[in-house]
Design a protein that fits this description.
The complex is a heterodimer of chains A (647) and B (289). Chain A is of the alpha+beta class and 647 residues long. Chain A has 11 helices and 35 strands. Chain B is built from 11 helices and no strands. Classes of the chains: A alpha+beta (647), B mainly alpha (289). At the A-B interface, helix 6, strand 35 and helix 11 of A face helix 2, helix 3, helix 4, helix 5 and helix 8 of B.
């Protein structure tokens, strides 16, 4: 039976905004879910009671849902068409498709809406894609009222190749239940599941009962509040979490569970770290624990105290690496192997990165479909900073024998070595390729922020990040909101920067084009009617030599940024010049008793997005040592190769 | 006993022929000189007169190396091309070197010097030694098939993804197996050349068949000799790497010293190669009659 509008409104208001709940977020949804894992059929049978609050000022007469698992239903889904059945190097198993089947959907104690359910494809109009569904309501949900639905569903898990699924007895159950879209700007923001896209949902509360055979070790979003054994050899665990926008869980009999508390006094943090590590990867336990502690400390200190009572690290089973490196609220999947040299910091980097998404995606709930840089880019920037702080700025990613590579260097390499087809800001499914999506929303966006930091200064940048976090935690910001936060925190107009950085695929490349130091000859010719002839024009003994030093700097890319230029003369004397960088070139001419030694544009390397640092400087006289060293090294390698190849 | 005897005799033979090792080193260095000029050109074209180019001497500037990789496509392509061409060319030159050295080892010089003996052997055996290259396919192909079959067995052992640790060890087994097969074929080819030089066998294929049978018949001894020689070579490599690791190459003087050490090591490897030929020739002489 349907509630009267008045009752519904009252219940909605009481449930969602009761001050006694002291919610961190404005809760739009509440999910009460009962889920049962059936390993024999690789399915999850579920019943969900969804309560949705219409927080807008307009009535809403249809609801839209994500049915993400239908991306894995067949090779005609938009995800499969875009990805070709491959995701981050993993390939689908054509014997084990995934799907979600909504068997019933009705208003709680009211009308059965199942017949009105239909699939829609707002992004690409692919009629065979079933990742978004809509239902028509018999009566519109009025502003500030809520509606409750009961939804029965069966989720068939695919063999994992893109985040969710199973591998042997390991299950990563993500994006597994019918999840309502976001009613945003007076329309549904409910995109299809794309090859490159991630997710977007409203904040709310989850109360989930998970039933699985007793042999499974379970982990899930939130805190475990109850546990009971059932007569049929299963047990049921209850998890509750408020102020999140998704719920994921995992099950595997081979997990070894560890729990440790993490506390911090400034800012105050007290949370329980839960580690579910596959027994084959126990060699990485200490690395996981250390890096999660580092993540909690870094993000709490730099952005805001970690607000949840638990954080769960899931180590996917061997063979399930495709589930690794993925974030969900208060739970994330890490990545390692049975043998991982200490200097290869992949487990640390992935742990810090995925934990960090608890902030940039989890707490600051930006739209990953439309502005993926707001979570991936900001988080890659944060990850690079954290890795540098804990592992050293020059070796934060790899410190293995003579090889030392930092996270920032890796990010820069991926950007300078690739084509420039897309801007950072674009719908995630509209990039020219998966690679272009990745390098733009992760690496280039991170470098953009590191560049901004060097431009504004670390203190201002820290203020910017805190401003953005505080202003937008538990809300849905856009790129414009980030720019506004940046301008407010810095007190500067930064549109010129973000317009180029976010909206243009162009490159930033300034260079020193040429240098010359020519001796100025003594005066010769007619002076006051008197001919000064060449013999007389000879320099007198001891007379000072004057040089005409000429420097030409050029803008080779389309990006326009102000530049500092360092001019170093023989003997070490330095001169600083500045250039607004607008014209294609600028010439500096100066006279003096010293020749040029070298000239360097952007000497502090502020513009990290400059695609070529090598052309930023030039010596008047070449010093062949460096090139000779590299050439001799290559030659020696070749000699060894030759020695192996034949007699 | 024959193995140790052959090993020591081989060392003596090589000690008596220092010019053989010097010839091998000279050819190696001549090929490498071309690579040096192309590599230097590639680095200069990418980094020019920049401070980044300077930096390469004093530290490992990863940014500069990345820019070298990404910013000098044409120059690097030229470098890789020249490396490949030189490797192929070296395969054509190798039979000359084998012929010269084996000839000098097989036939004591009654008159004339090393050069005369070397060039006489180089010309005399070149055709047959060169024909050994295509003929050796009869060994490389079965070796490859054996490797693939062994790989299938190893695959079946490590199919379960939960056996991640086992798979890691199996990777080493694969590498060791590949190296074993590679050196086994190389060893048989050594004996085929020795057979041609010592017995004046006209047919490369017949020499190859004889060598394969010889190695199978004396499998453990031939293997023992080959690997004792290999360990000797490795001892030199370990010493070379050890000395190289003692000093950083942040000055031009240190870089040149390091390169000089490399030349000494290449000379050592060249000498070991002469020892290989001498020792296996001695072993052949003792065991084949």
């Amino acid at each position: 039976m349907r509630k009267s509008p008045l009752l519904a409104a009252a219940a909605g208001v009481l449930f969602f905004i009761s001050p006694a709940r002291a919610s961190l977020s404005h809760q739009i949804v509440r999910y009460d879910i009962q889920a049962r894992l059936v390993p024999e059929t690789k399915t999850v049978q579920g019943r969900e009671v969804l309560t949705w609050l219409n927080d807008s000022d307009v009535p809403v007469s249809e609801l839209r849902f994500h049915l993400y698992l239908n991306a894995f239903k067949n090779n005609r889904s938009t995800f499969m068409k875009e990805s070709g059945g491959r995701h981050r190097g993993f390939k689908l198993d054509a014997e084990n498709w995934g799907a979600i089947d909504v068997t019933r959907i009705q208003i709680k104690d009211g009308a059965d809406l199942t017949p009105t359910l239909e699939f829609v494809q707002p992004d690409d109009h692919n009629p065979e894609d079933q990742t978004v569904a809509r239902i028509s309501l018999p009566a519109a949900v009025k502003p500030k009222e809520s509606v409750s639905l009961v939804i029965d569903f069966v989720s068939k898990m695919p063999r994992v190749f893109a985040r969710s699924g199973f591998s042997g007895d390991f299950y990563m159950i993500g994006q597994w239940f019918p999840k309502i879209g976001v009613w945003w700007k007076d329309q549904w923001n409910c995109h299809q599941y794309h090859s490159t896209s991630e997710f977007f949902a409203d904040f709310g509360a989850f109360n989930v009962e998970i039933t699985a055979p007793e042999r499974f070790i379970i982990g899930a979003t939130g805190r475990r509040t109850a546990e009971r054994k059932n007569p049929d050899g299963t047990r049921t665990l209850t998890y509750i979490q408020e102020d999140v926008h998704d719920f994921a869980w995992t099950a595997c009999p081979d997990f070894v569970e560890y729990r440790e508390r993490f506390t911090l006094s400034d800012p105050a943090v007290d949370t329980e770290m839960i580690f579910l590590i596959h027994r084959a990867h126990l060699n990485s336990k200490e690395r996981y624990v250390r890096s999660l502690r580092q993540g909690l400390e870094f993000y709490s200190r730099h952005y805001g105290p970690y607000p949840y009572g638990t954080i769960t690290l899931v180590d996917p089973a061997p063979g399930a690496a495709a589930a690794g490196g993925m974030e969900y609220p208060t739970l994330f999947t890490a990545m390692t192997t049975s043998f991982m040299p200490g200097g290869i910091r992949m487990p640390e980097m992935v742990t810090i990165h995925e934990f960090g998404h608890g902030y940039w995606y989890g707490i600051v709930g930006s739209n990953e479909f439309e502005e993926a840089w707001l979570d991936e880019g900001i988080n890659s920037y944060s990850e690079a900073k954290a890795m540098a702080e804990y592992y050293g700025p020059d070796r934060s990613l790899i410190d293995w024998g003579p090889v030392r590579i930092s996270d920032v260097q890796y990010q820069r390499f991926s950007v300078i070595g690739s084509g420039r087809f897309d801007p950072i800001l674009r719908n995630s499914w509209e990039y020219v390729s998966n690679g272009s999506y990745g390098l733009n929303v992760y690496s280039k966006a991170s470098l953009m922020l590191l560049t901004l930091e060097r431009f504004l200064g670390e203190e201002t940048m820290a203020r910017l990040m805190k401003t953005y976090y505080e202003r937008w935690k538990f809300r849905h910001p856009t790129s414009a909101d980030f720019v506004q936060a940046a301008e407010d925190a810095s007190g500067r107009d930064l549109k010129w920067f973000f317009d180029q950085a976010l909206r243009s695929p162009d490159k930033l490349d300034y260079a020193v084009s040429s240098l010359s130091s020519e001796e100025v000859p003594p005066a010769a010719g007619l002076f006051n009617g008197k001919l000064v002839s060449p013999p007389e024009a000879k320099r007198k003994r001891g007379e000072a030599v004057t040089y005409r030093n000429e420097i030409v700097v050029v803008r080779k890319g389309e990006w326009v940024v102000p530049q500092d230029i360092l001019i170093v003369l023989e003997g070490g004397k330095t001169i600083r010049e500045s250039w607004d960088g607008r014209e294609r070139w600028k010439k500096f001419v100066m006279f003096g008793p010293r020749k040029l030694d070298y000239v360097q544009i952007d000497p502090e390397a502020r513009w990290l997005l400059d695609v070529n640092f090598a052309n930023n400087s030039m010596r008047l006289e070449a010093r062949p040592g460096g090139p000779r060293k590299i050439a001799l090294t290559i030659t020696a390698w070749f000699q060894h190769l030759l020695s192996l190849a034949g007699l | 006993m024959n193995v140790i005897n052959s090993y020591s005799k081989g060392i003596q033979d090589a000690l008596l022929r220092p010019k053989a090792a010097i010839v091998l080193w000279l050819v190696n260095a001549a090929f490498a000189a071309l690579v040096y000029f192309v590599a230097a050109g590639a680095v200069v074209s990418a980094l020019g007169r920049s401070l980044a180019a300077d930096d390469l001497l004093s530290r490992s500037n990863v940014d500069a190396l990345f820019e070298l990789l990404t910013g000098s496509g044409a120059a690097l392509s030229a470098l890789w091309t020249i490396v490949l061409v030189l490797l192929v060319l070296y395969l054509f030159v190798s039979p000359l070197l084998y012929g010269g050295i084996l000839h000098d080892l097989v036939r004591p010089r009654d008159r004339g010097g090393f050069a005369q003996s070397f060039w006489a052997g180089a010309g005399r055996f070149y055709g047959r030694f060169f024909r050994l290259v295509p003929a050796s396919l009869v060994l490389w192909v079965p070796a490859a098939i054996l490797f693939i079959l062994a790989g299938l067995v190893l695959d079946s052992l490590g199919r379960d993804p939960l056996k991640e640790q086992l798979n890691f060890y199996l990777t080493f087994v694969r590498i060791l197996l590949a190296l074993f097969l590679f050196f086994l074929v190389k060893m048989i080819l050594d004996y085929a050349r020795i057979r041609i030089a010592a017995a004046e066998t006209r047919s490369a294929l017949a020499a190859l068949a004889w060598a394969a049978a010889f190695v199978l018949r004396k499998f453990w001894k031939t293997l023992a000799l080959y690997y004792v020689l290999g360990l000797t070579a490795l001892a030199g490599a370990a010493a070379y790497l050890g000395i190289q690791s003692l000093f950083g190459k942040t000055t031009m003087r240190a870089v040149l010293f390091g390169f000089l050490l490399t030349q000494l090591h290449i000379l050592w490897r060249s000498w070991i190669k002469v020892v290989y030929q001498g020792a296996q020739l001695r072993f052949y002489a003792q065991e084949s009659f």
